Amino acid sequence: MSRKMTSTYELEEELVTKCHKTVTELRDTWHQPIHGERINQRRADKAGSDRGSPDYLLCVNGWHHPLEFKRSTGGKFSLDQMVAAERRRKSGIETYAPISTAHFDALVKWSQKTTVAVSGFLHTCPDCPTVPAVSKP
Known about the structure:
Number of helices: 3
CATH architecture: 3-Layer(aba) Sandwich
Helix content: 25-40%
Distance between the termini: 48 Å
CATH topology: Trna Endonuclease, Chain: A, domain 1
CATH class: Alpha Beta
Oligomer: single chain
Structural class: alpha+beta
Shape: globular
Number of domains: 1
Strand order of the largest sheet: 1-2-3
Mean pLDDT: 85
């Protein structure tokens, strides 16, 4: 009998854990050049981190993808997260927002077969959602 997860944090943490396990398996078992680092997946005040910093950094094939994990239903982005993602986007770095392991796997596969963008041109994986732009009134 499994315990029903109720908090947003627990749902996101489960997704982060599954995705990190995929990275570890690709790196350690299949010897793929890939690395993943949890950055900001903490509860409550996220002590010691900047507002809007991503949950995870995925490094593969020259790409460095900041990831902001969200649960599949009801996951919302804070204004800080959207503003930080917009700053990164203006610098040529897209912030992805996978809501499932399928989105994460699609991003990994896309990154493995796509070369890093030429400076000033932003390539994005078509199969992985991104953090939305800040709405202007």
